[in-house]
Design goal:
7 strands; seven-stranded mixed beta sheet; 10 helices; single chain; alpha/beta
């Protein structure tokens, strides 16, 4: 990772240098339950609900990990005709493949969110959940814009900032203690993934700042919804129609 990439990579994570998510893939779901006190299930269900209301044939879920968003999206009424589930980690995608076994509307592929091997304007709905903080945001947003069809919709569920600053600082202090301690115990000392995630929680932009980044890339009608006081937020943006 060069200096330019690091500027918009909140966690300063380089998957080529550390395959830590591959190492913890089999424990990832349980660790998410522990760290969020099961709240991540509510957050993921909410973004899946929003995505199910969008029109279009193909939904792309990038940095999909163990496939939690596609699993929930398949349970919803409506939604896309097909779901492309992608991740850079073969081990994480193997967990997703087990959870999505038998789902006819789903295709799984190893793809890098920074450089998707997909045609321009080929996707109706794009989603990324808890992956943006460990990616170079600018490159990922540009790729999302490229692969979305005009009028296509972008969704991002990510760590955010509680608007009441004293409460947010208290939350960060709790995370500074909780995340490394539990990770060290649960992973037998291999806590590096959660060091990346903790750095990303601290340094990911505020809701309005991230919304402005999306607008700079070219997304229109950018909105965000705070969940659990603003611990996380869902951002939504639309790729402008042709000629706009």
């Amino acid at each position: 990772m060069d200096a330019a990439d690091a500027d918009t990579n909140a966690a300063h994570f380089d998957p080529q240098a550390d395959d830590v998510f591959g190492r913890i893939a089999g424990r990832y779901d349980r660790l998410c339950d522990v760290f969020s006190v099961f709240a991540h299930r509510i957050w993921k269900n909410r973004i899946a609900t929003l995505m199910s209301r969008e029109q279009g044939a193909l939904a792309l879920d990038v940095a999909s990990g163990t496939g939690d968003i596609p699993v929930r999206l398949l349970r919803k009424r409506g939604g896309p005709q097909r779901i492309l589930v992608t991740d850079i980690s073969a081990q994480m995608l193997a967990q997703a493949r087990t959870k999505l076994a038998g789902a006819e509307r789903v295709e799984l592929r190893i793809l890098d969110a920074h450089a998707l091997d997909l045609p321009d304007s080929s996707v109706d709905t794009y989603s990324i959940s808890f992956g943006m903080k460990i990616c170079d945001r600018t490159r990922v947003m540009r790729e999302a814009m490229r692969v979305l069809r005009p009028g296509g919709v972008f969704y991002c569920l990510e760590a955010s900032r509680i608007p009441f600053e004293p409460l947010h600082q208290a939350y960060l202090r709790y995370m500074d203690w909780c995340l490394p301690t539990i990770a060290r115990i649960a992973t037998g000392g291999d806590a590096s993934a959660y060091n990346y995630l903790l750095r990303g929680v601290h340094d990911f932009p505020r809701q309005r700042d991230f919304a402005r980044e999306l607008e700079v890339i070219g997304f229109r009608d950018v909105t965000f919804e705070n969940l659990t006081l603003g611990i996380v937020a869902i951002h939504r943006g639309v790729k402008p129609p042709v000629g706009n």
